[in-house]
Amino acid sequence: MKKVLLPVSKSLYIRKLIYDFLKYHRLDDIEAGFPEDVRIVYEGLRVIQNVEKERNTDNGVARIDVHDCGAAYRFLMALLAVTPGQWLLTGTERLLQRPIEELVQCLQSMGADIQWISDNDNVVSCRDVPWRVSDEDNVISSRDAKFCVSTNAKQGWLIRGKNLHVSDLTIDCRRSGQFASALWLIAEEIGLKKLHVLPENPSSLSFIEMTKAVVNGSVKLEDGHLADWSAAVYWYARLLLEGQMQNSTRPYSSSGTAFGDAPASYKLLQLDSSSIQSDAVIARWFTDWGIEGRQEEDGVVITYKENLIKPQEVIELDMCQNLDLVPVLACMACLWPKKMIFNGVANLRYKESNRLQIIQEQLSAFANIKVNTYGGVDDNQLVIDPCGDVPQRISTTNNGVNSSKDTKFCVSTNDMKSDVDFVFDAHNDHRFVMGFSLFALCGKVRVNGFDSVKKSYPNFKAEGVVAGTDMLG
């Protein structure tokens, strides 16, 4: 049995970091191996902390660069609006294109001073507030004098923080449930008692409930079993494919998979089957597909039992509360291969990449893919059907081993290399790095933008995947 160390849930940890910072004026050290998104939030809070220590909130504009972290973008927007000082909240070009206007308008309705500035406005002179880093003892702390300097970008949101108060608010969460979470995190600060969310059951409602649990004190960072279920899905999918390949007559390789005998089980350390994370639903889904899970003191053991899906059975799932699982499950569908229908996926367009578009572009060689339009009866639906008339997915030699001389599946002909069977472009989206890595079960894979996986899973390693020139695993 192979033991797998999963990352902490960045969704849980980020919420707790921000809430503790506001309520207790506390910013605890974090481990160096934590997801990049957690580090980005930590860095932003450290800047705020250092400005507050200066006791001069009129000393120019402090820049906070949240890179490509959507949670930091929305949550720190709300936090900065109620934090005295002048701030420029900025990030990558893609991040600044992601939805936030509904949150801005809601904050402005209670008196927040927030305005958009572009590179050409020249209305503000920004300064970088040093925050300190130390990798000693595997933690980040403020003890050392090594400074992190932000980028020079001046495009973003200029926020002049001040005290705000409102008891009743309404927020439109059709494009992101993080808008409501951002407001709940500052609820005590602004005296918020009632928050009306539109629509009544928005996409990612489960994450809003997670935020409420953090605010109510039912989540403690000191507790174990904070591993990330949205990272665990890779290992569930991998084990399912390994089990299917070993029991299939289809010639993936002479030993069943690209790595010889697949492990009978994985132990996913620090994973909690009773977690409030909505993505824990995969335990139930994969049980229906032949993966048995068992909770032990130090994690969850998953074991492949048998194929419980009939050959022509179509799997249909409601994904509106579990959008982060779609990239991995979509890749799994191509390799299983099973027709899968994912409902409630419209907001995939607003993630780190336009995930609906990337799925169509990157997986069209392996499946018939359809995204139903907004005006259709089955609104916001993604259909992946690998059973249709599509190009053969795997080229094999007579002995059943993938041949690098045969047809390759690449982003472009310029990406074809003699030692690589599949080339994908993750578009700097960590979820696709994990999804595309499943193809390593059938041959050697190169994923352009592999390092973006550090956003949620810094220690992710996928055997058979080549990132640039480095072999992982």
- Mean pLDDT comes to 83
Largest sheet: 5 strands, mixed
- Approximate helicity band: 25-40%
Low-confidence stretches: 129-152, 249-260, 389-408, 468-473
Output the CATH class name of the domain at 9-164. Alpha Beta
Detailed description of the structure:
By secondary structure, the chain is of the alpha/beta class. Among the domains are: 9-164, Enolpyruvate transferase domain (UDP-n-acetylglucosamine1-carboxyvinyl-transferase, Chain); 394-473, no CATH class. 29% of the residues lie in helices and 20% in strands. It is built from 13 helices and 23 strands. A 5-stranded mixed sheet has the order 5-10-4-3-6, covered by helices on one side. β14 and β15 (299-304) form a beta hairpin.
How do the strands and helices of this protein lay out in sequence?
Layout: E1 2-5, H1 10-24, E2 30-31, H2 36-54, E3 61-65, H3 70-81, E4 85-90, H4 93-97, H5 101-109, E5 113-117, E6 126-127, E7 132-133, E8 139-140, E9 146-147, E10 156-161, E11 168-172, H6 178-185, H7 187-190, E12 194-198, H8 205-215, H9 229-246, E13 265-269, H10 282-289, E14 291-296, E15 299-304, E16 315-318, H11 326-335, E17 340-343, H12 355-363, E18 368-371, E19 381-385, E20 422-425, H13 430-437, E21 445-448, E22 465-467, E23 470-471
Parallel strand pairs: 1-13, 3-4, 3-6, 11-12, 16-17, 20-21, 21-22
Antiparallel strand pairs: 2-8, 4-10, 5-10, 7-9, 13-15, 14-15, 17-19, 18-19, 22-23
Helix pairs in contact: 1-2, 1-3, 1-8, 2-3, 3-6, 6-8, 9-10, 9-11, 11-13
